[in-house]
Each structure stands twice: as structure tokens, then as C-alpha cells.
Amino acid sequence: MAQDLGGEAVKLPIFRSEQRAISDVTRKEVFDLLRLSETRFHGSRPEIDFLDQIYNLDELPSTDGRLAYNTARKDIFQHTVNNEDWDVDWVFTDSRFQLKNGPDEILLRFLAETLHPLVRDYSDAEELAKQYNALLRMDGWQLLPVREISGRPVYGPVPFAADGALVFGSARSIQQKLDSAYLGTQITRLQQAVLNDPELAIGTAKEFLESVVKTVLQTKGEAWNPSDSFPSLVKQALKVVKVVPDGISRQQETEQAVRVLVNNLGSSVDKLAEIRNWHGSGHGKDAKPVAGEVWLAEHHARFAVGVSIQIAQFIFDCLQAEGARPLDVVPANAQFQSDSADEYDPFADE
What we know:
Layout: E1 2-3, E2 9-10, H1 24-36, H2 47-52, H3 72-82, H4 90-93, H5 104-113, H6 122-136, E3 141-149, E4 152-159, H7 165-178, H8 181-196, H9 198-219, H10 230-240, H11 251-278, H12 298-321
Antiparallel strand pairs: 1-2, 3-4
Helix pairs in contact: 1-6, 7-8, 7-12, 8-9, 8-12, 9-10, 9-11, 9-12, 10-11, 11-12
């Protein structure tokens, strides 16, 4: 069993298939990226410590015929520490590690480890991930934050679908502007759950929008009541940002029309989440319906995710247009007691 770089024991990855969607061309370009940029794949960690996270170095064979170096661990130590007579990029073409010709999962796990917080600092990892993704997305993969360690993103492989790039690109734009690993983890969960667990995707879509809305409210110095409903939070955020520019013709009517439109969309997300609760709050990607059980479908999830992200983008863009800059991201479950117990009616006339 390997040790996760965060200190928790984890099982070695199970490589479930020999699929190789990532082409030889892409693999070469990824390796060239690391070579030409003089970026050491193992970052600030010794090569053996890095590779220990992915491979069992005591079981892999040695390329050195001498008995003293009869395992991969001893072999690597001899030639990278004692003698240092291997090239710095030796691992890319070493057949034992299956990076050049092995399954996609091995390469993706390796690249994800190069972005780990203990291997590379946040800004370097973020930039390297962008460069990886520019290459990997051509073959249907990307590396995105999937969890956090001490507030720092931990990257993992996520399938890339071109038809979802526009929607999720908007969400990633918000995440990057707020520099938030929390939002990054939510977005990655959304991307994974849309196909595998629509009900989880619907709930996460609501949480993503609620987090952005509360972040906007906090930035504007507005409190909210813990008992406020989700639609009322959306309505409150729309009241504190400029939804149309000053000086536009029929400004009051236009503001009212925009707010009603966005409020109604927000209420649709809330209703879908309510329906989701009737059928369970999410099953996990490996779950399957039991006989006679019917779950919500992918198109329900896509609707909730798409609407949530677009509302979040609109409200956040309105805030930015005012020149306001949020300092912290507010989690969806955060409570900030307001002085007033009055709850907004999302359908009340403006």
C-alpha cells in the first residue's frame, strides 16, 4: 500500500482497462513540455518518494544486472542518487512505468501527482495543469481539482466533453477569478456527476450557485438570515448589484424584467433540488438502480447545472462590473445572521 502525499494511506490505483485514448502524439507533447521547460516531474520531492505514490518499487524489476540492485527501488537509487548517470527524463521512456505505451489511467495518475501540493506550489501547479489540459483535452481528458488538502487543490483526471466546455468554462472562470479551491472541487464534482449521478449533480449545482450568491452578498456587506430560502438569497443578491447599466432607456422596467427572469430561473433550480430530495440526495458514481427503481435523467442534471452556472456567472459579472472584488469565497452552508427575520418572496413584485 502506498502513502498518499497528504499523509493518508490509500490503495494503489486499479487500472481497470487497457484503453489508450491518449495518443502517442499527445504523450510525446506532454513529455516534451516537461523536458523543454526543464520542469522536473518530481518537483521538490526525491524521485523515489514521488514514484512510491504510484508504483510498488520493491516489486518492479531492476534494469541493473547486479544482485545489489535487484529491485526498481535499488536500481533507481543507484543511478539517480549514488551515481546520477541517468538522464533527468529517464522515467518517460522506462517501460516499467508504462507512461509511453501503457493505459491512459497510469499516465493520468502520474501527471496528477506532478501537480500535488507537496510536489509543486499552487501557482506552478495551476500553470502546469493549464498546459497539460491544452494537450490532454484533444484526447478527451483533463486534470482538475477533485479535493483539497489544507485548502490546497489536489488534481485528478476528469473526462472532457466539448459540449460541456462552454458551461463549465464559465464556472472555471469564476473559480479562477476568486482563486478558490473550494469552488474548483464543486465544479469537478459537477462535471463527474452530470453523467454518473444526475441527482448528486442537481444538489451540487444548487450549492455552487448558493456559494457564489453568498460570496456576492458578503462582498457587498449584506447579511442573510439562516432561515432564508434559496430563491430569496438569489433575489437578495440581485437587489444589491446593478443588473443593468445606469442611463439605459426604461431603466426601471428593464431592471425589474431582468430580476424577475433570473429569479424565476433560480427558483427552477430550487424546485429541481426539491424533486431530487424526493428521490434521494445522490447515490454515488458506482451505484445502480435496483429493480423497478427509476432515477432522474442526465437531461435534468444538465438543465440544473447549466442554469445554476449561468445565474452565478451573471450575478458575479454584475458585481465585477461595479469594480467590487471579493476577498473570500463563502461556502454554501455558511450562515451569516441578519438583523431582520423577514424572508424575501422571490415572486413578489419589484
